[in-house]
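Homework help board

Subject: predicted structure for assignment chain

Our instructor gave us this sequence and asked us to write out the predicted structure in token form, then describe one feature. I got the tokens but I'm not sure how to describe them. Can anyone check?
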Amino acid sequence: MKKFNLKFIFSLLLLFCFLSSVSYATTLPSNVVETIKKELPNASIRFDGLITLPNGTIYLPVLPSNPKRNAQGKVVSTVPSSKKLSQLPDVVLFDSNFAMLKVIKTSNNKLTVSTDVPFVVKTGIFPQDMLVPPGLVIPDDMQVMMGDLKIATSSSRVNDIFKSSVSVKKGVVNKKIVPIPYLAGKTLLITTLDSKILSVVPTDSTVPKFTLTLENLPKFVQPVCNDDYILVAAAGKTYIDVADVKQEVLAKKIDLSFQPTEVILNTDKSKAFVAVGNDQSIFIIDLKTMNLLEKIKIKGYPKNIALSDDDKTLAYQDKNTGDIYTLSLDNMYLNKYVFNASNVSKLIIKDKNIYILSRTLNELQVVDTEIKDLIYKQPVAEKPVDMLLINGKIYILSASNELDIFNLDDFSFSRAIKLSDKGFSKKLINIPNTNILLITNVTDKKYFVYDIVKNTVLQTVDTPVFVNDMQIINKSLK
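My token output:
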């Protein structure tokens, strides 16, 4: 009896060690990924290993307990046995013992997986940070595969974050919009100053396709990874939510231990730089894995973060002192004081200059980072709130509903256009690879579609809410 107990305890210890060692092993084997991409070229592999197809098919990855050496990523068996990977079998086993289980629907529309699963697959384990589809039920004899994984149920908050169009359309009059060609087939992410709800709105409608209910007022919203995911930070929370738009689930929480306040992406959109409000740090998130890559200690408490167009330098302001710094993004992370400014709306860093939008002084200030002094200043319209750098020109939006243009080549200035007689203009959004800007108004239920080549408003679009922030998803969501 003692011998049996010792053996049993030893087995449990082995299992515990195994679960601990693989709890964050979500990177699929490269040769398996190659096979998947070859046989299923439209497949998408989420950062936690979940595999999805455009037709809605989902595969759960199963990491092997005893991976075979010298594997080539070949499929060795399927269930049913007559099917190839391209024919979407229920179970796929690779030569490394890595496996994929297809999520299937029962006769009463419940989600599950096949019960005809080889024993070698049942000895494996699901990635421990994977979020399985809401409502999925695993057969009893596969419970050991779950490890410490928490499966979302129909009553969990994971499923409540998304509300379908059925629930958001009740009592709402849909006003059809004919968007300009540049906006056709795109989607808007809209937040307000007084609601925890993020509305996902097609550009041809005033009614959300669906909404995301956050835990507090949103601090920022940022679509990433070809717009498959949305990074969302809520006021008072120390983490960033990662929402999976395709699966309509909250896919991950990235905990920073401090409240995130701003986010900016590098040029190829592989990294997110995050400022926090109550720590002297800049956080870097790897957007391929959705993991915290690095925490950089800096001088001051950062706000108004900006990246140079070569991704080599980050500029920011200390929210407590008004001091403006640069941070080199090489291995040295050299942090330099540059200038002091008060009540800054936004920063832009270009070459050796930092462009400062001063809301108090109603002017654009140009500071040379080498001599650390002001070299030029230009009056702008009253209460400047936002600016964008596009093709050598800075577009400056003022709350007094005016758009101004500043040319970097010769520091010449031109007053562009008066946008409206009422309201409070808030934000500029550039539609990628176009000459189109969207201009929001926080106290008037509308936004403007502006052409920077023709220097004119092409369209005025009514909205169901007062828009505080707006982001573009460059596709139509189903």
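Reply (TA_rk): Your tokens look well-formed. For the description, you could write something like this. The longest strand covers residues 218-224. That's the kind of observation they're looking for.
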